[in-house]
């Protein structure tokens, strides 16, 4: 992972570019840009990616696994990013399942995993990671929900060091998954630094809002919740928001 890194000064979206070249490049190729003019988030949202103030990157993966397993790459990315932020900055970063990293309840990183292939085979996976590193100030409407490493730490943070730690950790956790077929090592991090485990959360499903207690993150990395009526359910994905935040 990261043996080949393609870096840009500016680009629309590293995920979109990764998709264009994915077929022609090797597994593990990384695209990184100083700035994105059309950064994409989940659910069709846009992702603000100001110049030199964050890590805007995409990892191209070509694992020989069933498409159903593809979303596990998001878990590996969340675990490695959370771990790298903690190691480099000492900040108390937590993973808000399935793909956000938060500090102090505010989002500092988002992950967008996209997949191409057929029913029984993955052609490639793009894992897009956006980390707000040195963004000093957010627009008023984001101040309660977004933060950056510089805001939390009170001093600038070196983006390079985080990228290196992140990719090294990603490689380790990815290889562990490929060799063992389980998410064991990633799950240890995900459970240890979970922002939702044991908490009361709101689940947004379409336009339905449910309240639930998170009781476990299972072996597959799925969230086991207990709904208000006492029924238990496994959440595969969907928008999860922690109550009170
Ligand atoms: C989200 O939380 O909605 C996911 C945000 C993902 C942002 C990253 S930045 C690098 C990569 N390229 C994109 O266009 N998006 C992802």
Automatic annotation (TrEMBL):
EC number: 6.3.4.15
Keyword Membrane: no
Annotated binding of biotin, by residue: 13-15, 36, 40-42, 107
Reactions the enzyme catalyzes: biotin + L-lysyl-[protein] + ATP = N(6)-biotinyl-L-lysyl-[protein] + AMP + diphosphate + H(+)
Domain BPL/LPL catalytic: 1-178
Gene Ontology cellular-component terms listed: cytoplasm
Record keywords, A-Z: ATP-binding, Biotin, DNA-binding, Ligase, Nucleotide-binding, Repressor, Transcription, Transcription regulation
Any single biological process term in GO: protein lipoylation
A molecular-function term among this protein's GO annotations: transferase activity
Family: Belongs to the biotin--protein ligase family.
Purpose of the protein: Acts both as a biotin--[acetyl-CoA-carboxylase] ligase and a repressor.
UniProt-recorded name of the protein: Bifunctional ligase/repressor BirA
Gene name per UniProt: birA
């Amino acid at each position: 992972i990261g043996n080949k890194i393609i870096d840009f000064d500016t680009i629309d979206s590293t995920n979109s570019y990764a998709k264009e070249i994915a077929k022609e490049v090797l597994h593990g190729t990384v695209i990184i840009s100083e700035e994105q003019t059309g950064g994409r988030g989940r659910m069709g949202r846009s992702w603000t990616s100001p110049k030199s103030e964050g890590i805007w990157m995409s990892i191209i993966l070509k694992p020989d696994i069933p498409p159903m397993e593809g979303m596990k790459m998001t878990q590996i990315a969340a675990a490695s990013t959370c771990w790298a932020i903690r190691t480099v900055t000492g900040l108390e970063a937590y993973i808000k399942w399935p793909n956000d990293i938060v500090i102090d309840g505010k989002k500092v990183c988002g992950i967008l995993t996209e997949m191409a292939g057929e029913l029984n085979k993955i052609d490639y996976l793009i894992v897009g990671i956006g980390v707000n590193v040195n963004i000093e100030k957010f627009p008023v409407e984001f101040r309660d929900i977004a933060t950056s490493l510089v805001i939390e730490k009170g001093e600038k943070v070196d983006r390079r060091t985080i990228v290196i730690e992140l990719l090294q950790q990603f490689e380790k956790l990815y290889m562990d998954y490929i060799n063992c077929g389980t998410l064991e090592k990633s799950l240890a991090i995900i459970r240890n630094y979970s922002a939702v485990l044991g908490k009361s959360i709101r689940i947004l499903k379409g336009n339905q809002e449910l309240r639930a207690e998170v009781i476990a993150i299972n072996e597959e990395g799925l969230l086991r919740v207990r709904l208000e009526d006492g029924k238990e359910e496994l959440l595969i994905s969907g928008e999860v928001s922690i109550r009170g935040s």
